[in-house]
Amino acid sequence: MAAAETPSKGSKASFVCAIATPMADKKQTKRIYKAVGKAVPAKALRRGVKEVQKALRKGETGLVVIAADISPLDVISHLPVYCEEQGVPYMFVKSKAELGESANTKRPTSCVLINTQKPWEGRSKADEVIEDAKKLIPGL
Question: Are 89 and 134 in contact (CB under 8 A)?
Answer without folding.
Answer: yes
